[in-house]
Predict the 3D structure of the following.
Amino acid sequence: MSDAFFHPVSGLDLPRFAGVPSFMRLPHVAPGHDRFADVDIGLIGVPWDSGTTNRPGPRHGPRQLRDASTMIRAQHPTSGMRPFETVNCADLGDVGPNPADIIDSMTRITAFYDGIKSAGIIPMTAGGDHLSSLPILRALARDAPLGMVHFDSHTDLYHSYFGGTMYTHGTPFRRAVEEGLLDPRRVVQIGLRGTMYDTEDRDFAAANGIRLILIEEFHARGVEDVMAEAREIVGDGATYVSYDIDFVDPTFAPGTGTPEVGGPNSYQALQVVRALEGLDIVGADMVEVSPPFDPSGGTAFLGVSIMFELICVMAARIAASR
Amino acid sequence: MSDAFFHPVSGLDLPRFAGVPSFMRLPHVAPGHDRFADVDIGLIGVPWDSGTTNRPGPRHGPRQLRDASTMIRAQHPTSGMRPFETVNCADLGDVGPNPADIIDSMTRITAFYDGIKSAGIIPMTAGGDHLSSLPILRALARDAPLGMVHFDSHTDLYHSYFGGTMYTHGTPFRRAVEEGLLDPRRVVQIGLRGTMYDTEDRDFAAANGIRLILIEEFHARGVEDVMAEAREIVGDGATYVSYDIDFVDPTFAPGTGTPEVGGPNSYQALQVVRALEGLDIVGADMVEVSPPFDPSGGTAFLGVSIMFELICVMAARIAASR
Amino acid sequence: MSDAFFHPVSGLDLPRFAGVPSFMRLPHVAPGHDRFADVDIGLIGVPWDSGTTNRPGPRHGPRQLRDASTMIRAQHPTSGMRPFETVNCADLGDVGPNPADIIDSMTRITAFYDGIKSAGIIPMTAGGDHLSSLPILRALARDAPLGMVHFDSHTDLYHSYFGGTMYTHGTPFRRAVEEGLLDPRRVVQIGLRGTMYDTEDRDFAAANGIRLILIEEFHARGVEDVMAEAREIVGDGATYVSYDIDFVDPTFAPGTGTPEVGGPNSYQALQVVRALEGLDIVGADMVEVSPPFDPSGGTAFLGVSIMFELICVMAARIAASR
Amino acid sequence: MSDAFFHPVSGLDLPRFAGVPSFMRLPHVAPGHDRFADVDIGLIGVPWDSGTTNRPGPRHGPRQLRDASTMIRAQHPTSGMRPFETVNCADLGDVGPNPADIIDSMTRITAFYDGIKSAGIIPMTAGGDHLSSLPILRALARDAPLGMVHFDSHTDLYHSYFGGTMYTHGTPFRRAVEEGLLDPRRVVQIGLRGTMYDTEDRDFAAANGIRLILIEEFHARGVEDVMAEAREIVGDGATYVSYDIDFVDPTFAPGTGTPEVGGPNSYQALQVVRALEGLDIVGADMVEVSPPFDPSGGTAFLGVSIMFELICVMAARIAASR
Amino acid sequence: MSDAFFHPVSGLDLPRFAGVPSFMRLPHVAPGHDRFADVDIGLIGVPWDSGTTNRPGPRHGPRQLRDASTMIRAQHPTSGMRPFETVNCADLGDVGPNPADIIDSMTRITAFYDGIKSAGIIPMTAGGDHLSSLPILRALARDAPLGMVHFDSHTDLYHSYFGGTMYTHGTPFRRAVEEGLLDPRRVVQIGLRGTMYDTEDRDFAAANGIRLILIEEFHARGVEDVMAEAREIVGDGATYVSYDIDFVDPTFAPGTGTPEVGGPNSYQALQVVRALEGLDIVGADMVEVSPPFDPSGGTAFLGVSIMFELICVMAARIAASR
Amino acid sequence: MSDAFFHPVSGLDLPRFAGVPSFMRLPHVAPGHDRFADVDIGLIGVPWDSGTTNRPGPRHGPRQLRDASTMIRAQHPTSGMRPFETVNCADLGDVGPNPADIIDSMTRITAFYDGIKSAGIIPMTAGGDHLSSLPILRALARDAPLGMVHFDSHTDLYHSYFGGTMYTHGTPFRRAVEEGLLDPRRVVQIGLRGTMYDTEDRDFAAANGIRLILIEEFHARGVEDVMAEAREIVGDGATYVSYDIDFVDPTFAPGTGTPEVGGPNSYQALQVVRALEGLDIVGADMVEVSPPFDPSGGTAFLGVSIMFELICVMAARIAASR
């Protein structure tokens, strides 16, 4: 059982539209807070989109996700898991980026996550664009390369953009492999689709042993079969889960900058996470939620619904390992 | 054949955007009108959302549904049914609620439906939040408890909210069972999903014999199989159909206050109604359509498309029983 | 100088879109917090709209106002006042209403403000619909009736609605006068306009000595002249300031439930507040901001810009009285 | 006093969001209704925009105006006029246009208004694009040419478009002068602005004695002075009032197809109508309200607020002449 | 290989939000341009919606489609086809319609496409409402009747509207069959659904041998099976492909004037086009995209994603036939 | 008279919603085009917002401004100026920025404008955020410092952000003064308002002789008086005009990232430009138009209306100097 300090406010007591909105209505425990050391899973915002090559907006993601997360209740509808009573969860606040300096921002993010890792907290990140994953991995994989289950419509494995720019939201995992942060043979990318510049990213994947599962294969085989393979690929080792909201069909998740039509629906969007149960997840992110492209907030609500599923999976593993 | 007085205006004669918008472009026959006694199916608005615990808006539902309903034509595309020429349908207007007094509003609604029932009219209600169903059932079930097919992502079987408040849109069917308005063994709830406060509602269902069909079971078994069971549960007896628009996935029906992701799509939303054919439906409602959360009106158009399906099913039964 | 604990986060350090959004980026000091006793001006949300007779939504006001308030910086552009460094300001959180019980909600609100008053904190409230002002006044005026400067397009002086309902957002100041919470001869209402039911509210004002300034008079005389009279009316005594956002023309403030065209513009909306300098303000509110009718948030940004002006006026008075 | 049959429903009895929406909540009295002959002022929709050369949408105007008009109450805030109790007003429904045939539509509209004129009813039209005014004038001016006060940012006096097309919303008053429906020396156009194709329209005005008041003159002289001249121009004769919503600045009235920036605000938009008091108005229209460009409905609410002012002016004249 | 002149600008060089937006960032080659004769596939806008009987807007379609098309990259994700490097594609600009004259507009459109056909260019049209297809077919089928694969929720085979109007977006293919432009036995219509006026259109189809595939059959049989039949129906002869965006479920494509719920999802929307590979397509259109009903542009992005699929299929056939 | 090649397409010939949208429907003459040398005034897009510290979006500005500009006609309504027939104007396309590298982007922009200046073209820029002005000034002021009339609610004179970042949209004119691109004694900033971080920017202005006109002074003195002083400040020398759309009140121009309430209305927004007539304007920009915050495009339409006024002023001067 988790500490009562870490229990979220219930909507049966305080209406869900009331109160200062923290993630999942959890306590706000910034680094330095006296309960920081007791946190098991830390929800963190990375309000940053300087790596975006097309339509910006994910810098506003954490705030809209916090807002939407006040609609999430305490218990999982099928497993019965009550994650916030099982492990200590808290809102650790946002990493402060420098919107006008990419390198400075990455340094700040890595420093923040170094502290998280040192404290033994598993980070559940709310992005930010997908470049956010790189400075996070620099902290989480500082000891050894990680495996990764990556939900996305894009590989994000390009070499560079605009004549040599190495850090954009289309390149983080190319950099992560080059820097030894990911073990490419333990990486699987699921949901790939949409028109392509060329095959440079896929060639890199093939050359390094990254498994690509295109949307056609996903729809043909189904969630269960695809995810069984995904679990096998990452195996028992330490694994990162990166969930780009553009994995989901843009009708279900319009609030994102680089949509690609023909993706999974919202039911599949949840099911793929449930299938991660049992993995050794050392960190997860939900990225590319871009509020300006979905003022109604439906994308953010889907995002936090997925985050809740991720937290349930992580909490179950933590509980089982005690 | 219905009386020509009750035939709706055709879009081939008067464009669909023209005219004072009544439900389905039917005649407006308020209680007291000299054709009131001839109505078979009465379309009624209940513009009321005082039971809403989260995001309000369904009080504006009836007006947006009327507007959207002018897009509905005369004939069903597969069955060929022309309901408005088969039975006498009319727009009976709205029940006037008291937005600042829940008990007074319920009294007004029950009184209105008492008159409907006494006149032998089958009501097709456009809500209004889900608490609306309770005062309606108080009129329709005044003689004997009813069965119910209930489409929703929530059970609405909670005991109370906010420290003892008994009448909210999360409690109507708990009250209805307690008051003997529903026979719980003839009640089936379909499409349940989303995070939960606790299991208090499900425990009540289990203790009383209400059949709950979660969305996982719905997706696994399919519409046909699930609906066959639903028909069996309610059997030949008098049955109420309550259709909360949040049964449908919020991407297809964003205009609602308490969305839960991962629901049925719009095709399934229609199919489940077609499967009700043959039941003895004594009343139906379409509730929780909340225009402020869908200015484009797509939710309302789906809502009236479902209402048309319900009317076809009811008209077929009436015609068959003559 | 205020305590550094109470200084808001600067946008030059942490971008304004980052962080858990509290009012003005001030510390969150709920009742019970160990710095509660040190607060001079407390910003409080009242997320409640059960008194709304027309279009609901103000229950979502405090959250959107908090979000918009992160755009407010530290210093007033003309007076040079830096209020958050002059007096101790804090976000005291929201009062938890009961959305399905008006009487219970009013009891909760009055209890919360009783605590505020007892602690010597001046409340700056973010509503909520205008009925919110009544339970607040019940606490603030518990010792003696207050004067009031009231910006609004409506008098909110009606006797009752819907056949006798006494508590709606159209009746709070009728009740407040009846209950002896306001001294009607020290009350001025500014900006009145829009079609009327009848003259029952104006008759009450005339009979009790409340000064009504219609929009025609406001436009003809100008801000300076009108506000000089307003200051004279309330005089040196303890005064409440109630600012209904529908005072402002709905083009400038569309996010509200009962708009009336032809009102002041956003420049005048600020100037009228600056003219309150020197008054003994014992509490103020900004009510009727309704996010569902302005998804872009422009209304909320105007609302917090006005709140900042109010805080500057209150801080100057507090500082002057030390 | 008007007949109680013609009194609108009060928002104090039935909430304003409830009920089948007719104009101003007046009774729906279509031609043929047994009270048709008793109507003094008839509110009529012309849902038609086939004359639009740029962005379509006004065909949806009447419905959105009806919806917004349920927010209008019974009494004028400054004059105290209660128009619906002074003269008999009713919603006469919409004229059914043929959206795919301009000539056929104009024939239908003129036929409808011939009936209105023959019944001695003064029409208050809700358009529709500005071409609507032409077939209306063909009925109203069938006996003698009319004067006209015309609020607009455009003259609508062009000869033709697209190589000779004579009937568009840019040509109605050129046609009306040519057909002898308007006496050009009794026509004044107020609010003209925006970039121009050329001076062909202004040359026609100059050659025929039509008075053009550009926005610069309007802002420099003020409402009172300009309107005094306008009243003098039309004099005591029968006068038509045509109010294009694009007269108002597009920030105040975004829902229109051909906006021009720099126009009057919403207060001036009402004041110019009040200044028409005493004129012999034989018909009026409110045109070019285009809902697709203002989903929030603020433009429509301004539109019906202006319609209410027009009705008050017309009712005062009718009452005075009895 | 295509000529480098015809290669689109890459988003890796110039960000996708930059530049004057032409279709797919292709060169703008209007008739008369010196490279006009070299074009294989011409992308053409028909900004026209005068045939619309309900909600207008498709006249704005081409511009929004051009804007969205800058998000399309060079290569197909599964086939690897790089169409713009395979054949010469260009943006040929828009046909200038006369928005206030249907017959004149049809004459202009047919004249434009006569030039296209004479130049041996295969047109990929972006509409415009569905009446656009008729004047296009008059040019393309001037020598011999064509087969047609028609994706739509409506047959568009009605005889007339509003008492005899022959040219609306509900009648183009009735006219095309009557005029000998289509061989009805080589026409298949896929996706039909929604409420109906009557069976007049279906009777015409049955009498002439047009194959209708209702949505129920589509969902039951699946894309592959249905499309195999479609290919068989049109066979090896010259074939037109007409794609009404309302074929797709309105949740995926809200930006259209006459939605019908329960349609295909976005994945199926693409798959049906891929299944056209090998056909002798002499022209294709994407019609009824209506920006006013989808300001976010998601519908347009789906539209250009489908256009890209169509271009790939056409390019493969052209390449194979060389 | 300008060359017919440079005349824009008229809306009387081709409807304004038709055609590939270039600025003002002018010919697209990119550098290298054979008519490039003949251009007098070049309209250029700078789709770039990497300097934005708060809400991004201006990178999408040029495209939305092009779209809106197709609504602009040929002639000024009061002066009668037909600028496109007076001097040669053309759309020179966009400068391609590098969204993920600020320094690289500035280099690209300066290089582009070096070419413009060398060709003797006066640039009318559509931004982009306000940092855009700095690389433009580096080209235009390469020979000698310029004077500047600057409309804005902010000074943009801050030293740095986020602990030392020198290039943001809050610093361009500090840099420009430091780099000798602007003569501070010939710089006037008009419209300043909104809460402030501190007075560091105003101190810099005071120390360097930059004239600041706060909004209070602007409203008190009026457009004519203020602009007379502005003309005097810049005098006869070469002058740059920088127009930040947030100069205008955010109700009139919501589509911007850092709004400040209480600004000028849209009429004043035009009048201040007319008052620039006679100045030696060597370049002008319209910046900070951010489409994601105004999907309706009203801000962009105001932006191009202002651009048209600027072009008229510049064309008059060019014509006068010939």
In short: Residues 248 and 267 of chain A are 10 Å apart (CA to CA). The mean pLDDT of chain A is 97.
